[in-house]
Design brief:
InterPro entries: 4FE4S_WBL, Whib. GO terms for molecular function: 4 iron, 4 sulfur cluster binding; dinitrosyl-iron complex binding; DNA binding; metal ion binding; protein-disulfide reductase [NAD(P)H] activity. Keywords: 4Fe-4S, Cytoplasm, Disulfide bond, DNA-binding, Iron, Iron-sulfur, Metal-binding, Transcription, Transcription regulation. It comes from Nocardioides kongjuensis. With 87 residues, the chain is an all-alpha fold. The chain has one domain. It starts with 24 loop residues before the first helix and ends in a 9-residue tail after the last helix. The mean pLDDT is 89.
Length: 87
């Protein structure tokens, strides 16, 4: 199994950067810095997939905030299920 975390760009960063506290200007600046790092990461998708699968409620994962992931999950639930080979 491929360990995508060993290729994550954030592995060299302070983990606290990806988990700001509050909604202050400082916290927003911190989130934007984390997002910039995520946008340059080669394993953004598996990171986001993990956060969606585990319903992570905190931090920046795959370049998304908790609110952005909640919207993604709601959108995923609204999509119709298509069964392969069904008629």
């Amino acid at each position: 199994m491929d360990d995508w975390t060993s290729r994550a760009r954030c592995r060299f960063e302070d983990p606290d950067l990806f988990f700001p506290t509050g909604t202050s200007e400082s916290a927003r600046t911190q989130l934007e810095e984390a997002r910039r790092i995520c946008q340059q990461c080669a394993v953004r998708r598996p990171c986001l997939d993990l956060a969606l699968a585990t319903e992570s409620q905190d931090g920046m994962w795959g370049g998304t905030t908790p609110n952005e992931r909640r919207r993604l999950r709601r959108g995923m639930r609204r999509q119709p299920v298509v069964l392969v080979g069904s008629r």
